[in-house]
Amino acid sequence: MLLESYSEPGSGLFRFEGRAMGTENVLLLQGDDEGALRRAAQDAFETLDRLEQSLSKFLPQSDVSLLNAFGAERPVRVSAEVIELLALSRDAWEASGGAFDPTIGELVHAWGLVDMEGRIPTEGEILSLLARKGMNRVGFDVDRSVAWFMSPGMSVDLGAIGKGYAVDAVSSRLQARGVTAGVFISGRSSIAAWGSAPGAQTWKIEVVHPEDPDESLAELEVEPGSISTSGAYVRKFRKGWKEYGHLLDPRTGRPAEGVAAVTVWTESALLGDVLSTAIFILGVSALEAGGCVERLARAWSPSGEPRASILLARPCPGRWGGLELETFHIGRPAFTLSR
């Protein structure tokens, strides 16, 4: 039984769908009063819409878009959520040695990865854009709720941390409304589960294959928490003999290589999204004792107990399916690999 099957008749969970944050979102909520759950779901989707109005780089009047348009000229008033995410992003940028960096928006455009048309920028373009990125070049004032850029030609994309923030906000809001168990699935990359699954203590989650979204890579039995995934997932383009993925290494300005996909369990979706991104860029070095995963898990785990469980998929031509799976745990393991 995987997540989607939890919405089958008789499961005890009701399914609600909505589009926000640039992706499809599914709520599977447990309860006896369908009307009350429907109202809770509507409130959840309104929360997502509100956050999207602030955090989306694709909406021209969002706080992030206004910051990108005018931040190099003057301080721009932004929401408290944007300020909080900028502060957290700076911490993650420092902890990861620059592997997590929301300021690579112009590099993403240079590679044609917004619309996935794909192009290879020149060495000069890459070097020029590398010189104009980094969270140390983003200023913000919490008291005045303003932010600005210290270099021209910069932009931020909070997608790698903003969706996790939104998933946490929605799941917390639903629990505050008395929804004792449920799942929030946001696109392919972020899941939050709380309470007990129907007939079990753990939730069963399928990890899809990064090369074929219709194929299962693994099945996990996870305790309540969040599951975040980073991978190319067929968002690639080909030039000549080489394929290029859509996830860039902020340190080199080029598509990251070496990891096919990474799935992370954490207590919060925000932490999970940041860790999955950093691990995808850094590989196993992020998981070393005292490395960025351990440091961020210690600093950001809501319970105060540093925990993160990771499933890492790396290319391995000699194996069936072309991938090698490894598991790593910071603190107590939170999932078991069932297939």
Q: What is this entry, summarized?
A:
With 339 residues, the chain is α+β, with helices and mostly antiparallel strands. 30% of the residues lie in helices and 29% in strands. It has helices at 34-55, 63-70, 80-95, 105-110, 123-130, 159-176, 269-282, 292-300; strands at residues 13-20, 23-30, 76-77, 138-141, 146-149, 182-186, 190-194, 203-209, 212-222, 225-231, 236-239, 242-245, 248-249, 254-255, 261-266, 308-315, 323-330, 335-337.
Structural notes for this entry:
This protein is α+β, with helices and mostly antiparallel strands and 339 residues long. The protein has two domains: 3-36 and 170-337, T-fold (Roll), CATH 3.10.520; 64-159, ApbE-like superfamily (T-fold), CATH 1.10.3980.10. The protein contains eight helices and 18 strands. The strands form five sheets. The protein has an eight-stranded antiparallel sheet with strand order 1-2-6-7-10-15-16-17. A hairpin with a 4-residue loop joins strand 4 and strand 5. Helix 1 (34-55) runs antiparallel to helix 6, helix 6 runs antiparallel to helix 7 and helix 7 (269-282) packs antiparallel against helix 8 (292-300). The longest helix has 22 residues, at 34-55.
Reconstruct the topology from this structure.
Elements: E1 13-20, E2 23-30, H1 34-55, H2 63-70, E3 76-77, H3 80-95, H4 105-110, H5 123-130, E4 138-141, E5 146-149, H6 159-176, E6 182-186, E7 190-194, E8 203-209, E9 212-222, E10 225-231, E11 236-239, E12 242-245, E13 248-249, E14 254-255, E15 261-266, H7 269-282, H8 292-300, E16 308-315, E17 323-330, E18 335-337
Antiparallel strand pairs: 1-2, 2-6, 3-5, 4-5, 6-7, 7-10, 8-9, 9-18, 10-15, 11-12, 13-14, 15-16, 16-17
Helix pairs in contact: 1-6, 6-7, 7-8
